[in-house]
Amino acid sequence: MISFNQVCKRYPGGYEALKSVTFDIAEGEMVFLTGHSGAGKSTLLNLIAAIERPNTGSVVVKGQNVASLKGGALPYLRRNLGLVFQDHKLLFDRSVFDNVMLPLQICGFDHRESAKRVRAALDKVGLLQREKANPIALSGGEQQRLCIARAIVNRPSILLADEPTGNLDMAYAADIMEIFKSFHQVGVTLLIATHDEGTLHRFGAHVLTLKHGELQPTSTGSGQA
Amino acid sequence: MKNWLAQHGRVLLFTVHRFLATPVSSLLNILVIGIALSLPGGLYVLLQNIQGMAEQVAGTPQISVFLSMDASHDDIARINKQLKQHEAVGRVEFVPRDRALEQLKRTTGLADVIGGLTQNPLPDAFIVYPKKSDVQVLEVLRDELQKWPKLEHVQLDSDWVRKLEALLKFGRLAVLILAILLSFALVAVTFNTIRLQILTLRNEIEVSKLIGATNSFIRRPFLYFGLLQGLLGGVAAWLIIMMGIFLLNSSLAGLAQLYSSNFALHTLPAGDSLTLLCFSAWLGWLGAWLSMAQHLRQIEPR
Q1: Which residue from B210, B213, B217 is facing A89, i.e. has the nearest CB?
Q2: Facing residues of A161 across strands?
């Protein structure tokens, strides 16, 4: 589903964020990406969504080499991905409902069908009661859950999450992990970047560990190629 | 198809909302566009009116045929007959030299001067009304008559129409240049409005791109905004022109009465009005499009 082959990412100025990273993630797998801050977790996720491009190597997502994708094809790649951002990237000029509606509007869904889907997604993350609220009135955990609702409303086959439990307390974090687990159960491929060691051990999922831009062999990890 | 229409309808509705959200700046933009367009538009209407007037006056062109002083009665009768038989001539009026002198005395107030003359300096004359008012036909006729014996001078009375025509041509060119220049100004106004909007909505554009929005999806509301602003600017220009003509007409009415004429300026015809609206809407769209082409590339998610 997602495979990296000898991927290097160097930033202008010479800083190497990723050094020859190679791995494969199979369809329906749930994989955690871990490492110290600045290890290259966000860069790796950005390469999958083609927000950034690698300097060398290939990034293949669903059989497409993202590294050489033309600008016009990017939107259609991203529609297959659900993205959960560390900083949520919500729009504060519209309601919770309309925030989740946006991906469906972009894909040109029928309005009534979309409304049903939006409510289903909000229900899944427990925000159905807040659909008319402005996202600014939501707590950090609620905003994170709203971001997840927006990522899944389009029913993507791959979900990428960057520090989804980053600033949340234990109870909220457990909530969100439960939500991810339920996606895993319905066959969604998940790649979750986190530095929350506790979560990793509880789930016992595959783990990719980055250290200074290099993939480390880990005891729990079988996600490495 | 129905879905597609519904989508565009929603975008249009959204655009109208955005337009109404900033009423003052929207209104000012519309006014700027309206004034810019009403200048060449108004001048165009005036030129059309002058041309219409010229055509009306020149609708009955005449050729004055002055006979030699030594033309006898027989000559006059012969020329009269020849003129009447000529296929290009519609009607002929004979003006004897005595009557011409009388007329001159009456209309010009030169009675004293004329009274001092020992003999009548005016020749006998014919006024020829041709069948057709085409300038070229008239010129041919004039050149032909010039060659007849006992005719001193043949004068075409529509020369001034041709001069006016040339002047109008010049005026139209000036209006065209003005229109082109102000069109650029209109495009610039829209370009800038859209640029400011893009900057304000940078967040939304960025998030939309991350979620998989195509460039045409992102462009759509901005293009509609440009189109709407241009269209409303066109409506403003139309209203300004109409109001201008209305005001001019009410003061012209008094003037026309002095000349015992019922002259009044015509307003913009429906076809030209439609052209004005379409053109200004197109210019707004163009300005928005150029602005998007320039600025959209700079907003890439990070």
Answers
A1: B210
A2: A84, A192
How is domain A27-52+80-220 classified at the CATH fold level? Rossmann fold (3.40.50)
**Cα-trace Rg, chain A:** 17
pLDDT tens, per residue, chain A with 225 residues:
899 999 999 988 888 889 889 999 989 888 999 888 888 888 999 999 988 889 999 999 988 898 888 888 889 999 989 999 888 899 998 899 999 999 998 888 888 889 999 999 999 888 899 989 999 999 888 898 899 999 999 889 999 999 888 777 777 788 888 888 888 898 899 999 987 777 777 776 788 888 888 888 764 544 433
Please report the residues numbered 70 through 89 in chain A whose beta carbons come closer than 8 angstroms to any beta carbon of chain B.
72, 75-79, 81, 83, 85, 89
- Same structural domain for residues B52 and B71? no
Residues B3, A89: C-beta atoms closer than 8 Å: no
Q: B225 lies in which domain range?
A: 2-57+163-298
Domain boundaries, chain A: 27-52+80-220
Q: Per the structure, how many domains does chain B have?
A: 2
Indicate the SS3 state at residue B19.
Answer: helix
Give the distance from residue B203's alpha carbon to the nearest chain A alpha carbon, in angstroms: 7
3-state secondary structure of A182: helix
CATH number, domain of B153, equals 3.30.70.3040
pTM above 0.80, yes or no: no
* Number of C-beta neighbours around residue B257 at 10 A: 11
